[in-house]
Every structure is written in C-alpha cells, then in structure tokens.
Design a protein that fits this description.
This protein has 141 residues and is an alpha+beta fold. It is built from 3 helices and 9 strands. It has helices spanning 2-31, 46-49, 103-113; strands spanning 34-40, 56-60, 65-69, 74-82, 86-89, 93-94, 116-120, 123-128, 131-138. The radius of gyration is 18 Å and the shape is globular.
Length: 141
C-alpha cells in the first residue's frame, strides 16, 4: 500500500511538471512575435504621445530576450515567463538619443509595472495583476 501511494504521488508530480512545461512552451510560442503598441493605460492619444513613431516589442522566447523601440530609442533585455501567464521584464537597456515629449518615459515605466499577460485575437495585453498596462497588436511582418 505504501509503495502504491508513493508511486501515485510521483505520477501526480510528474504530470504537474509536464503540464507546466507544456504551458510554458505554449506561452513562449504565442509570445514569439513582433508586437506594435496599440494603447497604453491612461492615454487616449497614443499616436500624439509618441509623435507618430509607435513603440514595438519583439520577443525571442528561445533566448528569453525582448528587443524593440520605445518610440525613439532602441531597447533590449531579458524577460522571464512562469506558468499562468506571469511575465517579468529584466533590466532593459536603451540607446540614449534625446527624445521629444515624455512618450518614452511613459512606455518604459509601464513595462516596469508588468506582472503578467494574456493574448487573444492577435492582441497582447500586458497586465499588472488584473489591470491593463498596455495592449499591442501582433505584426503581420
């Protein structure tokens, strides 16, 4: 009886580990694309905020790196995925060109608030808990 209980417990643990790995693999493949900014919390005129050059993010989930543009400067750095859509950006490096307005600061500050994400109908929603931080649309490129 004790051996059966131990074997059952081991099977449950193995099954859970496999499901977590599958969900991480699925999240990586969904995220692995270029995403163009569509909206950002608390700003109704996103195009005006960025003076016409819209930010984007490009995820490379094999290398666990993100690159893109802030609307002015290039950015890149690591990110981490965990089960259930948890997403954390590491320290993101940017180039240092002078940028008009405050769009870049709004975008990078928003990225620092991200804790999780969801994807539906080619829209990536970056969230802080249940609150939408920004939405990006999958690029056709």
């Amino acid at each position: 009886m004790k051996k059966l209980l131990i074997a059952s417990l081991a099977l449950v643990m193995l099954s859970t580990a496999c499901n977590n790995a599958k969900s991480l693999t699925g999240m990586k493949s969904l995220l692995n694309a270029k995403w163009n900014l569509q909206s950002i919390a608390d700003y109704s005129d996103v195009a005006g905020l960025f003076n016409g050059k819209m930010p984007f993010l490009q995820f490379d989930s094999d290398a666990m790196r993100v690159s893109g543009n802030t609307g002015c400067n290039s950015l890149n750095g690591p990110f981490n995925l965990e089960p259930k859509g948890k997403l954390i950006f590491g320290a993101l490096a940017t180039t240092k060109m002078a940028c008009p307005g405050n769009g870049e600061a709004v975008f990078t500050n928003a990225l620092n608030k991200v804790t999780n994400f969801s994807i539906s109908d080619n829209v990536l929603t970056l969230l802080n808990g249940n609150n939408t931080v920004m939405q990006l649309v999958k690029s056709a490129e």
